[in-house]
Amino acid sequence: MLEARDVTVRYGRQVVLDRVSLRVEPGRVTGLAGPSGCGKSTLARVLALMLRPSGGSVVLDGQAVGRWRQRAPRAQRTSVALLYQQPRLAADPRLTLTEIIAEPLAAAGRPDPERVAALAAETGLTPDLLTRRPHEVSDGQLQRACVARALVLEPRYLICDEMTTMLDASTQAHLVAVVEAYRERSGAGVLAVSHDDALLDRWAHRRVRLGETELGEAAPAPG
Ligand SMILES: Nc1ncnc2c1ncn2[C@@H]1O[C@H](COP(=O)(O)OP(=O)(O)OP(=O)(O)O)[C@@H](O)[C@H]1O
Fold it and tell me: Where's the ABC transporter domain (predicted)?
């Protein structure tokens, strides 16, 4: 289980999250909805160990998180992968798509070209695209590479923050199917942050709404 417990985040004097609690269960998709600006991306970053909250705690498979970003222990950092809406902010423009997908393996000192090739194929990247750099591919193609990169170290939790919002319907469906196939074979927990109620109806097992004052849980989605 990946849990935020009474998490508070302040930016200067603005309180963006006020004692918010949320659980991301292994093997299930938790949908996170709520109005623009209510703090969904902020909570996603806290759960991905990218942002230290001002108060409260994050517990990852029973262990309290004590350090954040690059200071977090490698085992905790690689347990949670984050996907953003804008792949161009998340990918090094100097690298080819193959290198982008392989980056976490290279950083861990265990290159695995076969796994990179398998994930590239699964996300729908053809060999001619893999040697290109981000400025030579579309946003959808780059997001496919970012999804492959997010899965390459087999995270136990995947935080998808508006992962498909900017993409056409067929790319959206493909990438959600890739994440779903990964979840089913690995038992990973998924947090799907989205404005798109129809997407969360199809995808999430349960839905949490982050309001201005409280956090309520909706009934599980059918199916
Ligand atoms: N780095 C930052 N510095 C200062 N304020 C910030 C920062 N990041 C976010 N905020 C503010 O925190 C609030 C919550 O932002 P956040 O991006 O978490 O909301 P959101 O629910 O994801 O919004 P949206 O649905 O529009 O993406 C907003 O008022 C935003 O302006």
Answer: 2-221
Q: Into how many domains does the chain fold?
A: 2
Residue 103's pLDDT is 96
Q: 41 C-alpha vs ligand 1 centroid, how far in Å?
A: 7
Are 125 and 177 members of one domain? no
Say if 84 falls within a structural domain: no
Q: Single out the residue in 137, 154, 171 at which a domain terminates.
A: 154
Q: Ligand 1 atom 29: the closest Cα is on which residue? A: 37
The confidence score (pLDDT) of residue 126 equals 96
Q: Are 40 and 193 in contact (CB under 8 A)?
A: yes
Burial 18-30 (b: 16+ CB within 10 A, else e): bebebbbbeebbb
CB contact at 8 A, 187 and 160? no
Burial 80-95 (b: 16+ CB within 10 A, else e): bbbbbbebeebbeeee
Six-digit token string for 65:
């998180």
| pLDDT at residue 166, rounded to an integer | 86
pLDDT for position 218: 42
**How far apart, in Å, are the Cα atoms of 56 and each of 7, 23, 193?**
4, 14, 21
CA of 44 to the centre of ligand 1 (A): 11
What is the pLDDT at residue 133? Answer: 98
Q: Is residue 207 part of a domain?
A: yes
Parts of the chain with a pLDDT under 50: 212-223
